[in-house]
Design brief:
The chain is of the alpha+beta class and 83 residues long. It contains two helices and three strands; from the N terminus they run βαβαβ.
Length: 83
C-alpha cells in the first residue's frame, strides 16, 4: 500500500528559538505587534510503500529518529494517510 506521512518538527518549548525571535521582530516592525510569540519548525511530507499503516508509522518513526529530527532539540508529530 502507498501512504503519505506528514511530519511536523518543532523546537522544544524549553529551548530558545532564534528563528522564531527573528520572525517575531520582523512582524512587529511591520506593525503586527499583536503577534506575541513565534516558533519556527519544519514540515516534511513523505510518500512511502508499506504493508499497513502500522508499518508505515514505524518506518517514518525510524526516519525521524535517525535523520529528520534532533531529539535533543526538537519534538515531532506524525500523521499517516493511505493513498
Amino acid at each position: 500500500m502507498e501512504f503519505i506521512a506528514e511530519i511536523d518538527i518543532m523546537p522544544h518549548k524549553e529551548l530558545l528559538d532564534p528563528q522564531g525571535k527573528a520572525v517575531l521582530s520582523g512582524l512587529q516592525k511591520m506593525d503586527l505587534s499583536m503577534v506575541q510569540d513565534v516558533r519556527v519548525g519544519k514540515h516534511i511530507s513523505l510518500k512511502l510503500q508499506a504493508a499497513d499503516e502500522a508499518q508505515a508509522k514505524d518506518l517514518v518513526e525510524q526516519a525521524c529518529k535517525k535523520l529528520l529530527a534532533n531529539a535533543i532539540m526538537e519534538g515531532y508529530t506524525i500523521h499517516i494517510k493511505a493513498i
